[in-house]
Amino acid sequence: MRFDIITIFPAMFGSVFSGGVIKKAMEKGLVEVHVHDLRDFSLDKHKQVDDRPFGGGQGMVLKPEPIFAAVEKIKQSEDTPVYLLSPQGRRFDSFSAEEFAQYPQIVLICGRYEGVDERVIQYLVTGEISIGDYILTGGEPAAIVFVDAVSRFIPQVVGKMESVKNDSFYEGMLDFPQYTRPRDFKEKKVPEVLFSGNHNKIRYWRKKKSLTKTWLLRPDLLRSRKLSPEEKRILEEIETEEKGKKDEPN
């Protein structure tokens, strides 16, 4: 898969993809990341890519001409999706990351200042993407998050796809707790069920822990998830147990 990132601060990506899983994926030819300086596509001799907004107001707005020129040059196919990274966009999550991983190329435009000329949004981009309800100084950190999250769903990028499927949010729930050596650390022991050798008991324990964590920390995820009969039974157990804890005298 190929990611093309359009930015006015290409130096921000200098070492971001030079280590870890993304670097290995690039070395294997599974992923390509190309960073483009928007100023290289400016039609102005001073390489200006922004201007004051019509109608007055604070800040600067990215001009349409260089963005259109950059996208037209970078897109390898008419079907290549182009997304503006913006706080006004569609909320980025694990499900959309898996969806985006199906494309051979995606072009990302990093917003800046007071935004971009509205004609870019109306006539050029496929859509807008937001990584959360907060404001960043620009779209560059969001682009890094996007590439990292999407790359994990590309076959062979992560050693075992099973590890991706076990991650939080993949099935609409938070992940279950993980433990490793030592078995006893400062008198805090690893749950005995994990040494039972009974795979069904371990699976059930993990499912219950995952549901418990989700019910306590992110109940909104459960409201939008279709629960299996087993999950419904486990959730009833959890609610009964948690209610019991609250009713216990201090």
Structure write-up:
This protein is an alpha/beta fold. It has 2 domains: about 1-150, Alpha/beta knot; about 185-245, Trp Operon Repressor, Chain A, CATH 1.10.1270. The chain contains 9 helices and 9 strands. The chain has helices at about 20-25, 65-75, 95-100, 120-125, 140-150, 160-165, 200-215, 220-225, 230-245; strands spanning about 1-5, 30-35, 50, 60, 80-90, 105-110, 125-130, 185, 190. The protein has a 5-stranded parallel sheet with strand order 2-1-6-5-7. It has a two-stranded antiparallel sheet with strand order 3-4. Strand 8 and strand 9 (about 190) form a beta hairpin. Helix 3 crosses helix 5 (about 140-150) and helix 7 (about 200-215) crosses helix 9 (about 230-245). The protein is elongated, with a radius of gyration of 23 Å. The termini are far apart.
